[in-house]
Amino acid sequence: xxxxxxxxxxxxxxxxxxxxxxxxxxxxxxxxxxxxxxxxxxxxxxxxxxxxxxxxxxxxxxxxxxxxxxxxxxxxxxxxxxxxxxxxxxxxxxxxxxxxxxxxxxxxxxxxxxxxxxxxxxxxxxxxxxxxxxxxxxxxxxxxxxxxxxxxxxxxxxxxxxxxxxxxxxxxxxxxxxxxxxxxxxxxxxxxxxxxxxxxx
Length: 201
Prior knowledge:
Layout: E1 2-6, H1 17-25, E2 28-31, H2 33-36, E3 45-48, H3 53-61, E4 68-72, H4 82-88, E5 94-97, H5 102-109, E6 118-121, H6 129-132, E7 137-141, H7 148-157, E8 163-168, E9 176-180, E10 192-197
Parallel strand pairs: 1-4, 1-5, 2-3, 2-4, 6-7
Antiparallel strand pairs: 7-10, 8-9, 8-10
């Protein structure tokens, strides 16, 4: 059985009991080096994930008789590896264990409801900002190419009024939360999620 497990935003205390139990029973742990480093005492095999996701899935297809746990950041089906795996593997040979996404975590930290929320990502693509700014409440998982500063510049170029919440290093000891107007956004932030709010509806 292949179990794709959501590891939450980072803090080990935020992992589910279901995830912990499956990790303890695993023959093989698969994940990015950063995630595997959280399990120095794991006695089984470790498979370090790289950019070759298709190669990983081919390998997983030959290992479905073993207990394999694929570690996914946040929630596996929210801009995570879970989508690619479930598209290729038979449903009876894999399962998804949800985790707390960085988006959920940030909204809880700032005590903002997620009702009517549009969720998107800038990972590996150029967002359609005209479409995004039609929504009054947006959460975006960012990358190094399109992050808080680029989002703020798109807002300013259109002369829009928005408030940005930038959550850096969420759930880690160096977590930082910023409530900013677009002109206040700095060029560089650590790993982050951005909330875009239209508060003048």
